[in-house]
Amino acid sequence: MAAALLAMNDTFGRFFNIGEIELFETAAFAEQQGNPYFIFDVQTHYVSSHYDPSDAEANRKGAVSKQALLSLRKYIREMGLNPKLAGDRGTLDDLSWKNFVKEVFFDSETTVGLISTPPGPYPQEAVVPPREMAHIRDEINRLAGSQRMLAHGLATPQLGAADLEFMAMQAETLKVDAWKCYTGSCPKGFDRGWRMDDEHIAYPMLEQARKLNVKRVCVHKGLPLGPCRATTIHEI
To answer: Is 88 left (phi over 0), alpha (psi -120 to 50) or beta?
Structure first.
């Protein structure tokens, strides 16, 4: 916690009253001796790198994913954020679920992870659809012999009754562990975001989550994903 507060002071200006000596507080350090940290990564992603000559849509998504990866690597190199990546041009396999498992469980100290996904034009067409997220979750837990992975379901409340039905399928068939929502994302046919306090859009989704007994709702409150109008900044 001390390291996190110091990092924010260094980035945004001194806001928290904390000194560097608190990084080495004896009692806090002693509490961790011999006991591993419990690390729960609640925001992990991967995309499919499968190439199917007969599937133009899958190939298009693969091209988009590759371009996104290359753009990110270029940004990291130019900003000097990680010198170790200076000569790494990256491949599409870096985004695959196999590399995802390697990075999360073999090359880090993560105890439990959660698979999430950016949205698509419809929730069934997300970068990684809920059915695939649940499948990878179940495979990882099967191989581990314990619960090492959880999976998000997607809720897109602008879609109304269709979304409520899709939520029910995800809860009852896929056994999703929580919901991921994007207030600044527009499904196909919509041009604006939505608010969590909208009684006509958000409340039915929240009531459905309670009814399905999947009551954890994780809401993306960052920038909009793609062109999306918002009446006020609170909508995103």
So the answer is: beta
What does the pLDDT look like over 176-234, one tens digit per residue?
A: 999 999 988 888 888 788 889 999 999 999 999 999 999 999 998 766 665 666 544 44
What gap in Å lies between CA 155 and CA 173, rounded to an integer?
15
Closest CA to 222 of 180, 177, 163: 180
Q: Which residue has the tokens 């067409």?
A: 125
DSSP, res 178: E
Q: What is the distance between the terminal CA atoms of the chain, rounded to a whole angstrom? A: 28
Task: Please say whether the dihedral angle defined by the alpha carbons of residues 89, 62, 106 and 220, taken in this order, is positive or negative.
Answer: positive
Which residues lie below 8 Å from residue 213, measured CB to CB, with a gap of 6+? 171
Res. 30 pLDDT band, cuts 50 70 90: low
pTM assigned to the model? 0.72
Residue 152, strand partner residues: 178
Beta-carbon count within 10 A of 143 CB:
12
Name the packing angle between helices 161-169 and 202-211 (round to 10°).
30
Strands (E), 98-166: 112-115, 149-154
Cα separation, 92 vs 102, whole angstroms: 15
